[in-house]
Every structure is written in structure tokens, then in C-alpha cells.
Amino acid sequence: MSQHKISVNAAVRPLVRTLVEQADKLRVKVGKLPNGATVVDAGIEAPGGLEAGRIIGEICMGGLGTVSLSFGTNSARWPYQVNVHSTNPVISCLGSQYAGWSLSHGEGKGAFYALGSGPARAMAVKVKDGVETSVEELYKELDYRDRCDETAIVLEVDRMPPVELVDKVAKACQLDPSKVTVILTPTSSLAGGVQVVSRVLEVALHKAHSLHFPLENIIDGCGSAPVPPPHPNFVKAMGRTNDAILFAGQVHLFVKGSSEQAKMLANELPSSTSRDYGKPFAEVFKEYNYDFFKVDAMLFSPARVTVTAVDSGLSFHAGQLDETLLERSFGE
Predict the structure, then answer these.
(1) Which of 19, 198, 263, 266 could form a disulfide with 318 if both were Cys (CB 3.0 to 4.6 A apart)?
(2) What totals of helices (H) and strands (E) does the chain contain, helices first?
């Protein structure tokens, strides 16, 4: 599935420029690290907000998707929702938005750890035995790699990254650090909540990949989920952002191939198919002693899905919204 003519890094330039140039309006704080990299604080010391989160959501999507905010009718008590769409969902969601780049610096209590998302992932390479390959194995399947003279990466963290970690990002992207923009969105912030929930389409694409559905058959997609109320406690804030998708997220995928494949995908996609479904994510996380990797990976998916087989015109629906569980998460 060669998509080499598409540059997610070039596509996000106007979005990153807006975030930086309209920092005061968007209530974000822009600074420079000693190595020259630009840092955008969207919720640590700066208040940030919903609009900053919307723009950051589009940056995460590599400029190949739209994120909007509107009132909907799916939740009586939480009607304000995030809407996403991409006509290039595989590259947008998996090739950019997915938080697949594991980054760390230091050891012990002072160690810094983050999962990087956004267009920088598509540029990051490693060299082994003289052979240059992408940092993430996923890009082999996508048959995609980007090149650009600047990049941006989004980190869902609540403190400034060490300059050494940003140096690693710049080196992997084969750029001078001055050409790197690092965007910080704490989970407990308004911007952080919006940018996480804007992954409602991405989690569906990631689960489809895990289910071994042919990615080249996914040709379009859209989704929505409610804006979660922020919470100062990290675990509860993370729980709410996940629950917005697990209990009230909706996705519509348009796929090529047989109707049987489309029906099977629809039936297997909803979050309710997971063994860990049935309680707010913060409770599930606590039961696993806060070990994220013990949580069933199949849980991370929308509550309700529609899959349309474009070759036959048939559509298949599965899953359901759960207002009771959403209220348990958002209302506590």
C-alpha cells in the first residue's frame, strides 16, 4: 500500500504554525529548549483549551484528517462531542496518530517516559548493520516513510521532556533539533482530553489491524465520541478519556472486499467484545495494579460501529452505547 506521495509532516505545517503563532489566543505557551527545539505547552503551566486540543488532534492525524467539536444527541448528559474524519484513514491514523513511538531517558524515579504520536513517527529511523529502517515495525506493513525538513511530535505528559530525549527524536528524524516541535498535552487538561478522544477512529483502525483485516481495504472512515470532563487525578483523567470511546464512541468504516469480511469486522470491532468490558477503565486499570500491558488490548475500540462494504452496498452494525457506564466514569 504505497502512499509515498503523501507527506504527513508537510501537511501539518499550517496547523503547527497556527498553534505557535496564535499561542495567546489558544492559551498555550511556546518556548525553546537549549538545543533549539520548539516546545508547545498545552496544559502543564498554560491552561490550553478545547480548541487547542482540536488543532493538536489534527496534527496527530498528520494533517490528513479533520477534528471538529459540536453538540450531538447520543448522550443526554454529555452532548458536546468530538467528530473526526479522514479520507486517508490508514496513513492518518496508523501512520501518524497512533502513539507507537516509545521514548525514554534516564533511570529510576527521575526517568522520563512517553509514547510519541504525530507525524514525526513517519520520519523516525534506526540504523542496524548499515541498514536504515523505521523505528516502528508497523511502517513495514504500511509501506510508508516520510521525509520533510521539519517535524512535530505530540507527547501526552505532564512535565517538560529532557533535552536529551528531544535530541533522540531529532536524530531519529535526521533533522537538527531546531526543526522539531514538541507538543505537550497532559491527560488531565482540556486539550489533552480532546486530543485523546479524537483517536476514536484510530482505535478502530488499530483494532482492525490486530484482527488482521486487510488495511488496504479500508478506504474511508469517520467517528465521534463525547468530550470528557477533565479530572486532576491522572488515573481518573485517563480513565475518562478512554471511557468516552469505549462506552460512547461511534465509528463508520467504508471498506472494499467481501460482505462477509465486512460483517465479521463489524461484529468483532466493538469494545464490548473484550473480556475487560463492563466497568470504567480506571477500575480495570487498578485491578491490574496499574499495569497497562495486562489490560486486554481488544478493549480499546469504539462502543458502536458500522462497516459498509462498498462493493455490495451492504452495511453491518454492531455494539451499543452505554450511558450508564459513561455516567459512572464521568460523574464520579
Answers:
(1) 266
(2) 12, 14
Q: For the chain, what's the residue count?
A: 332
For residues 283 and 118, what is the distance between their CA atoms, to the nearest angstrom? Answer: 29
- pLDDT for 107 equals 84
Q: What gap in Å lies between CA 300 and CA 308, rounded to an integer?
A: 21
The domain ranges of the chain are: 1-49+96-186
What is the rounded CA–CA span in Å between residue 170 and residue 87?
A: 29
How far apart are alpha carbons 204 and 271 in whole angstroms?
10
The two beta strands, 218-226 and 180-184, are: unpaired
> Can you tell me the mean pLDDT for 240-259?
98
Percentage of residues in the chain with pLDDT exceeding 90? 92
Task: Give me the pLDDT at residue 210, please.
Answer: 96
Task: Output the nine-digit C-alpha cell for 70.
Answer: 459540536
Pick the CATH number of 1-49+96-186 from 3.10.340.11, 3.40.50.10420, 3.30.70.890, 3.40.50.2300: 3.10.340.11
Helix segments in 200-288, DSSP class H = 200-210, 234-248, 259-268, 281-287
The pLDDT-based confidence of 184 (bands split at 50, 70, 90) is very high
